[in-house]
Write a structure and sequence with these properties.
Layout (H helix, E strand, L loop, with lengths): L3 E8 L2 E12 L2 E10 L4 H12 L12 E7 L1 H12 L2 H5 L5 H15 L4 H5 L7 H4 L8 H14 L1 H12 L4 E11 L24 E8 L5 E8 L8 H11 L5 E5 L6 H7 L5 E6 L2 H9 L14 E4 L7 E6 L1 H26 L7 H15 L5 E6 L2 E6 L1 H8 L4 E6 L8 H9 L2 H13 L11 H24 L1 H6 L10 H9 L2 E7 L2 E6 L4 H10 L4
Parallel strand pairs: 5-8, 8-9
Antiparallel strand pairs: 1-2, 2-3, 4-15, 5-6, 6-7, 9-14, 10-11, 11-14, 12-13, 15-16
Amino acid sequence: MRPVHLEIQTHRGKPCGVIRSTFREDGKVKHTSHGRIAGVPLNTLRLIQAAFRGDVLPKHHPEALRLLSSKEYGASHALLVLADEVGLTRAIYSRREPWVRDCLAMIVGRVIHAGSKLALSHLWKTTALWELCGTPGAVDVRTHCYAAMDRLLARQEAIQKHLAARHLHEGALVLYDITSSYFEGDYAESELVQFGYNRDGKRGHEQMVIGLLCSATGCPVGVEVFPGNTQDASTVPDKIAEVQRRYGIKELIFVGDRGMITQSVEGKLKGVEGLSTISALTHRQIVSLLERKVIEPDFFDEQSMAEVIDPDDVTRRYCLCRNPQSAQREGDTRTALLERTRNELTRIADSKRKAGDDKVGARVGRVLAKTKMGKFVIWQVQDGHLAWQFDENKIAAEKCFDGCYIICGTVPAERMSKQALVASYKSLSLVETAFRNLKTVQLEVRPVYHKTDDRIRAHVFLCVLAYYLQWHMNQRLAPLYAEDGKHAARQWTFKAVIDRLSAIRRQRVMIANTEFDQITEPDDEQQRLLDLLQVTL
């Protein structure tokens, strides 16, 4: 059989290929046509022509296969498809205007890369994300990031209303918690950045306070940034009003962290129709119940949960619980702090250095402030000499309440059992998970490079929308995590999923003087991830 080749011709202005064999007969070159290829682009014909030749081209041959560029593709494509499917794209704005696509690039970029907006804008050479969002070539951080953030902030209320409509309903459980995030550097133009109680123990740093509103399953539906000196409880009444008035949820069960429902807050919430609350009592509130004889230490039991109705307010239910692991941990911590207090006070009492009563008292005060064990110490200073002892009765009384906590709720018993009421409070751990991802694990809300309050708010809102996308992604990946091993056998984390998807790349290929894009074929593991996410390449 004579060898065949493809001859490219033009027919009626369009390229076509003729499959031919060429031979010599009686000294003349003759051709036999075996078929035609039409209706395909010229580049495709050239590739087929090269395949017919079957030449093994040397590496530096002008028609040899070359990879001109390679960009991350899989993770960006998967997250953008997911954003469309879960309704995030439409929540941002009903029309896919350029600023909406820029916001999507920043949201998806936050999940995959974190880092600053400037750093993300420079990744256009490394990732296909910006091209997928409609920005080929260089990215201008002011136009594609900062201007888009301003538009996003203006839409925050409408976006959160849209998310609330999707994830909250009448009578819904609404989870609310507060965290802080500290700043480094000068923020003189900001009213948000203030000194306050830092929940991360970062003393000497100004901070902002972030309030996050989530559904019963931990899906974020709203966020607000407060000045750094804001107290947790002071934000509660307005947040409840926001859910009822702005989001249209007239009946809700508001779940707040320990101490959020203070006596002052209760006074402001009295008479609010459709509202029930669940929270945990502070130590001081528990002591108040003991003094009023509403509860007794014997009511706390590891095996069964006691429920007590407040005689002064029959709508308030107290569920008394005891956790043995917490009891052991609290006991060990107190023992260590008491031992540290003993050593420090003994050193002061045995000191041969002469000092006045005021100076000795100041030294004792610093020790007790550091260990927070002052309530267990009886002491006095006379003639520069310290005399002290532990109040063993108070220590013994404190031990009785190790691991004890009380969940307080105003949800009627016929609507929610005591077990469900306690479980509802424990679901606040889902908000803590959100904060952990926002602050350290994946999304890295800090450091904050923006100096004005509006940009700071927009940055935090963008990070929460990134967590919204991550939350939905984790819901679809739940079977993968459930099948995963434990400890050293554990393979899958969210970051590991992103890394595996990012290994799916878009290559710019040249062969036979023809350029085209080629997506790498996913392996079995990558295909499993795409199938779980319900994404096709």
